[in-house]
Write a structure and sequence with these properties.
The complex is a heterodimer of chains A (about 170) and B (about 350). Chain A has eight helices and two strands. Chain A is mainly alpha-helical and about 170 residues long. In chain A, a hairpin with a 2-residue loop joins strand 1 and strand 2. Chain B starts with a helix and ends in a 5-residue tail after the last helix. Classes of the chains: A mainly alpha (about 170), B alpha+beta (about 350).
Chain lengths: ~170, ~350
């Protein structure tokens, strides 16, 4: 199980709180547990309801920050994103990156698109995705000492790279 | 022209007879959310920008190549329609209820004459491309929606990233932007009280179940909408395939439930169906909710072949025709609720009488 707060390290601190017959559980890694004060036998510094509240809550540090970040293109604030759960423009995805990742992971269980992309604007990115895949295959082929296959892959990669440069 | 017919005629192509699994599956819908790269998302648009988006979409749908490939598409600004006419579009399931709420300036709807293809412009996203078909037809719906999408993309530049796919307003739609849904008639599962179990099972599989017009889980007329929840990290074909497979399972569960219902209490079931049929054929005053309930019974009777000679299309048409805005439109003037109940009863009676229609 991964830490619910950082989603990176394994959860080793398991904390249960029962209020009005409602059980709430927190599973955190040690670092996050220390930072939030959970499990230190003292009253936790943050309110559990807020912490677990919605899909779109902010990182505790962000609350401390006096100025909420804003998207330079459309002016949406991070606080507004957290409140309504809506992005303001396509740039917001990059601007609010950590929060977006967290939300996507909770909703979809992943942050990686595998479906269709626009043919025109997606052509380049499609090629880049294919290149990435081929490079991984190439690495694997070299590791397995399948040099014939590796050579084929190398040629295909060169071809695509040239296509990308030419198509710019 | 075409839109006038849409607003006058309760029939829509998604009601057409002969759809797959039509005894349980009323219709299938595939919706693609798309946004333009050059503009903020609809809720952050100035009125001028919103108009520019409408204009851009208008140009894209007018391309001769588009018309040649998928048929002519007509764009209409919501502001050109009366509130009743907008409501008719909702009642025919061509636009969402949210779309016509509040200020409608800067919003438009694109329709193909047969109403199979519709595009909402400036709903939650700049574009919501929808294909609505009778019976279980998610694959066909996806293929058509994707074709329309490709054609529009030749003129419009969509917001997208390699990582996140299509970038849209709400993170719940990001990635493929694909929401596939089917409208199911589940009187058997409702009557045998198995629906709750089925719904919670579907929830675990990442599907959403909602009532008829997609709001809440309270369903009128035993009609439910089942759709995919996850839009990111899976390919469109996978989403369509998995939902289709699940719907097939639901269909067989519903058929089993109907059989059980008939086996255990044949008289009670027959009475319910024929009583409703009798009321629909004879009532002089009928409220919208009762009409939907009776029509649901009638649909079950037709599916079980107890009642012959009534096509599913007529029942779907009557369900739309029973809606308030449609009655007002049919009457050509505003109607008090009591007047609507009288008109509703008359229209249903006429359509169901032998030699009617």
């Amino acid at each position: 199980m991964l830490c619910e707060r950082c989603n990176k390290r394994p959860a080793t601190v398991h904390y249960t709180e029962i209020t009005n017959n409602k059980k709430q559980e927190l599973h955190l890694c040690e670092e996050c547990a220390r930072e939030t004060g959970v499990g230190s036998f003292m009253m936790p510094q943050l309110v559990l309801h807020d912490f677990l509240g919605g899909l779109f809550q902010q990182e505790p540090q962000a609350v401390v920050e006096p100025v909420s970040r804003e998207c330079p293109r459309c002016g949406l604030s991070e606080r507004e994103f957290a409140r309504r759960g809506l992005l303001g423009c396509s740039d917001c995805y990059a601007v609010f990156r950590p929060a977006v990742d967290q939300v996507l992971r909770r909703i979809h269980g992943t942050v990686k698109h595998t479906g269709k992309l626009p043919r025109r604007s997606g052509k380049k990115t499609g090629v880049q995705r294919e290149l990435k895949r081929l490079r991984q295959e190439l690495e694997a082929a070299v590791r397995r000492e399948e040099y014939e296959k590796a050579a084929e892959l190398r040629d295909r990669i060169r071809e695509l790279e040239q296509g990308l440069e030419g198509g710019k | 022209m075409a839109l006038k017919d849409t607003l006058k005629n309760p029939y829509s192509n998604w009601m057409k007879d002969g759809g797959a699994e039509a005894d349980v599956v009323v219709s299938s819908r595939v919706r693609l959310a798309r946004d333009l790269a050059a503009y903020p998302f609809p809720h952050r648009l100035s009125p001028e920008q919103a108009e520019e988006v409408v204009h851009a979409v208008g140009l894209a749908v007018q391309q001769s190549k588009t018309a040649a490939a998928v048929g002519p598409l007509e764009l209409t600004r919501l502001a050109e329609l009366t509130p009743v006419e907008r409501q008719v579009l909702v009642e025919k399931h061509l636009v969402s209820p949210d779309f016509i709420k509040g200020d409608v300036t800067g919003k438009a709807v694109v329709l193909r004459a047969d109403e199979v293809v519709s595009i909402m412009v400036n709903e939650e996203d700049h574009l919501r491309i929808q294909c609505l078909m009778p019976g279980l037809a998610l694959r066909e719906g996806w293929e058509l929606a994707s074709r329309v999408d490709d054609l529009l993309e030749e003129t419009l530049e969509y917001a997208c990233s390699e990582e996140f796919g299509y970038l849209v307003t709400c993170p719940t739609n990001v990635g493929t932007g694909l929401r596939a849904s089917v409208m199911l008639h589940l009187p058997g599962l409702v009557a045998t009280r198995m629906l709750g179990e089925v719904i919670s099972g579907l929830g675990k599989l990442g599907l959403t179940v909602r009532g008829l017009y997609g709001e809440g889980t309270k369903a009128t007329g035993d009609l439910f909408q089942v759709s995919n929840q996850i839009t990111l990290g899976r390919q469109e074909e996978e989403i369509i395939h998995d939902l289709t497979a699940l719907v097939r399972r639901l269909v067989s569960q519903e058929r089993e439930a109907r059989k059980r219902l008939y086996r255990e209490q044949p008289e009670a079931l027959e009475d319910r169906i024929f009583r409703s049929y009798g009321i629909l054929q004879n009532a002089r005053v009928i409220e919208s909710e009762e009409a939907l309930r009776r029509l649901s019974d009638l649909r079950l009777g037709v599916a079980l072949q107890m009642i012959k000679g009534i096509p599913f299309s007529l029942i779907a048409e009557l369900m739309v025709l029973s809606q308030p805005a449609f009655l007002i439109k049919a009457a050509g003037r505003n109607l008090a609720p009591a007047e609507r109940d009288v008109l509703r009863a008359r229209l249903i009676r006429e359509r169901l009488s032998p030699g009617g229609k």
